[in-house]
Structure formats: C-alpha cells, structure tokens
Amino acid sequence: MDAATLKAAQAPVKEKYRTDPASARTPTAARGDYRDPDVTATVEGFAGPVRAGLHPAAGGDGSDACSADLLLEALLACAGVTLRAVATSMGVELRSAALAADGWWDARGTLGVDRSAPIGVQDIVLTLTLDTDASDADLERLAKATERYCVVGQTLVSPPAVRVLRA
Known about the structure:
This protein is an alpha+beta fold. It contains five helices and five strands. It has helices at 3-19, 67-90, 107-110, 136-149, 151-157, and strands spanning 32-33, 40-45, 48-53, 96-104, 122-131. Helix 1 (3-19) crosses helix 2. It is globular.
C-alpha cells in the first residue's frame, strides 16, 4: 500500500469522525472460557484459540502462553502496524523490519510472596530495527508518532480503570 491508497482508505472514516465524533468510539472485546484443564484460560484469538496458563516463574510448566508475553505481543503488533502506517503516510520506504518487545515482571508480587513487590510488567522496551534510507529526522518522527498513536502503548501509558464483574 502506498501513501495515496492509505489516505484514500482513511479519508472517509476521518471525515465521519470529524462530523460525528461519537461514531469514533470503537468497541473492542475478548472472549474466553475454561474449556481446557489445569490452571488455564482459553482465549479466542484472531488466529484461533490461545490457551494461557501459568508461567514457569509462577509454577507452570511453560507449555501454555504466558499472559505477560501476550501483552507484549499485543503491544508489538500495535506498534508495528502503527509505525508502518505512519511510514506509509510519510512516504518512508521500509524494506524490512525486526520488531522486539522486552519487559520484566517480579514473580514475588503476583505470587504474594512480597507485598511490596510490584505486580505487572515493568520496564517495557520496544526495539524496532528498520532497513530504510530514511533520515535521522524522519526516523525520529516515526518513533514519536508510533508512541503517540499506538492504541495499546497509550493504554499502558495511561491505564484505564479495570473492573472484574461476576455475572
């Protein structure tokens, strides 16, 4: 896709959101269940069901997806698509990219071993290695725009309230 095709695809929705801001509020959802045994939750993913379970640091055997890894995968997917859309819009050619997300979490917190230990993924770093002839200034613009417009990244920067309801 080139910049003109991307702009043409986005123009009608951008105009709709300008004239009817309420229509830009876009629902998103995830669904899962306990169809699988053990301490797992199976979540319906785009490419099929994903069975999440305990990380080895929390007593699992490593055979299931780790929720923290899934979080980083969602962040990396969002940042990667955002960067590519911004590069396309700017007319910056990206021949290839290697994308990585790394973070740390303290198992003492999630296991209740130490109440002062943080719970959650900390110190997340995205490394986006690009094969491009773009200038340093364009690469800086790409990085800043990726940070600004990545939905998952901004959700982590300014987290929403999360409530657990029982039905």
